[in-house]
Amino acid sequence: MANPTNKPIEILVTIDQNYIKPLEVMLYSLKINSFTDKFRIWLIHDNIADKKLVALTTFAQKIGIEIQPIAMALNISFPDSLLNLHDYPKEMYFRLLSSQILPSDLHRIIYLDPDILVINTLRPLWELDLQGKMFAAAVHEGLTDIMSSINQLRLGTTTDYFNSGIMLMDLDQMRAKVNLEDISKAIAKHHDTLILPDQDILNYLYGEEILKIPETQWNYDARSYSVYLARSTGKINTEWVMSNTAILHFCGKSKPWQKENHSRFKALYLNYLHLTARIKDYQK
């Protein structure tokens, strides 16, 4: 069914120029599996070259997607203590601070990591009732969910440990509650125990503000096929994923576009990668 209001689904991505190619694949998968919906992509970045932005925008236009680039450096200055933490790029914090620079007439947005495939519509997530929460996100529970207990001990939290790679975000609440000062103080306090800084900070500061959504539908960890299959006693198999999962998330350091990766969903990813390349070749 087409979008009755004809308003776009708002999507946020925050990348450096090393992730442009995966982003293009993600955008193609997003459009091809929600072809009746309109999308507007807000790309918050720090130093992507103009030439690369033009090429990305041209590709997006070809598949019917609008991109709005925003340079974060022109809007927020980051303290050195944050930027030097474990040598992680500052782009990872852009999602938490996005409400400060996105237009005030935007009220909600879906944040997506670039290392994903969208294989079914995002509309149910876009229209989700947040029940007063600031975010909606999934927990990668594994077979025993021992990691939530470990992270509760490590960070002193009481909630589940949420993955920050896919989130529905209430921008109005974020404008009132999220700020760089609180994030910097949290980093200073937990500097030695942070593993994934932005995700740790999300859980430490805002865990109580997150609505839990099903991971197998909205943030399926592509490494964990056997875990999901065992936990569901065989129900969540490949056929189930293709019919019910909206987002396949290729978590971890090994990515499906790398030769050494041999995950179950690599062939599916490579198919989208090759189709994306054909569209780009056709543009030339």
State the gist of this model.
The protein is of the alpha/beta class.
Beta percentage is 15-25%
Overall 3D geometry?
globular
Question: Based on helices, strands and strand pairing, what is the structural class?
Answer: alpha/beta
Strand elements, count = 10
The average pLDDT value, as a whole number, equals 88
Total helices: the number is 13
Features:
10 strands; 13 helices; seven-stranded mixed sheet; 284 residues; three-stranded mixed sheet; alpha/beta
Please write out the topology.
Blueprint: E1 9-14, H1 20-32, E2 39-45, H2 50-62, E3 66-71, H3 80-83, H4 94-97, E4 108-112, E5 116-118, H5 123-126, E6 135-138, H6 146-155, E7 163-170, H7 171-177, H8 180-189, H9 197-206, E8 210-212, H10 215-218, E9 220-221, H11 225-231, H12 238-244, E10 247-249, H13 266-283
Describe it for me?
The protein is an alpha/beta fold. 39% of the residues lie in helices and 17% in strands. The chain has 13 helices and 10 strands. It has helices at 20-32, 50-62, 80-83, 94-97, 123-126, 146-155, 171-177, 180-189, 197-206, 215-218, 225-231, 238-244, 266-283, and strands at 9-14, 39-45, 66-71, 108-112, 116-118, 135-138, 163-170, 210-212, 220-221, 247-249. It has a 7-stranded mixed beta sheet with strand order 3-2-1-4-7-6-8, with helices on both faces. Strands 5-10-9 form a 3-stranded mixed beta sheet. Helix 2 links the parallel strand 2 (39-45) and strand 3 (66-71). Helix 8 (180-189) packs across helix 9 (197-206). The chain is globular and about 50 Å long. The model has no long low-confidence stretch (mean pLDDT 88).
